[in-house]
Amino acid sequence: MKILEGDILLVVDLQNDFCPGGRLAVPHGDAIVEPVNCLAREFAHVVLTQDWHPPGHSSFASAHEGRKPFETFEARFGIETLWPDHCVQGTEGAKLHPDLRIPHAELILRKGFHIDIDSYSAFLENDRRTPTGLGGYLRERGFDRLFLVGLALDYCVRYSAEDALRQGFSAVIIEDACRAMGDQDSIDTLRRHLVESGIFLSQTSAIL
Fold it and tell me: Which of 13, 51, 154, 163 is catalytic?
């Protein structure tokens, strides 16, 4: 797959708390660090995203008395999942993985910093109304196709790819440079949904 001038690599939430040993670890999340580094060297343009929650964020189970991680709760904009405290601003867990080597990244976009709104997508917070500004940035820079990698495939990568399509961009998920939280059955169902939605699925071997 040839990389064109209007292409950009979006590296989603490759942070300590989403890797083994972190507060909300994605299984084998750190296994994608080196493939992502290799992919990034092929792209002239790269954007990184970073979950960046304030202490006491409304998506944390600890912010709701008597509630536990992975339960659901009624947020002001709908049903949301409660998580362990993770990616708290200024903590080690919120830092990008130390082996990530993308010095030419042009933007680090932080999301989830509104205390009462969680954020999966790199484009919109979970209220589906509050923009992060990424769409405008990409349009103003003249990009039209996103290649997505990172954590987790079934949450932030998925929602970012879906919102990229809604905002008029093409989206390609490089599957083997992602890891998911769900089991194989849920991942297979997700793959079918993504393809039916118009999102392309690819592998690092098609890029490198």
Answer: 13
Question: Does residue 19 carry a catalytic annotation?
Answer: no
Q: What whole-number distance in Å separates Cα of residue 191 and Cα of residue 199?
A: 9
Active site includes 13? yes
Q: How confident is the model at residue 207 (pLDDT cuts 50, 70, 90)?
A: very high
Choice among 85, 87, 111, 154 that is catalytic: 111
Give this prediction's pTM: 0.97
Fold category of 7-57+96-206 in CATH: Rossmann fold (3.40.50)
Residue whose tokens read 């909300």 = 24
Query: Read out DSSP for 65-121?
Result: TT--TT-EEEETTEEEE-B-S-SBTTSGGGSBPTT---TT--EEEEE--STT----S
Query: Among all chains, which residue has been given the structure tokens 């001038």?
Result: 5
Query: Where do the structural domains in the chain lie, given as residue ranges?
Result: 7-57+96-206
pLDDT (average), residues 12-28: 98
Active-site option among 19, 87, 156, 178: 156
2 is a catalytic site residue: no
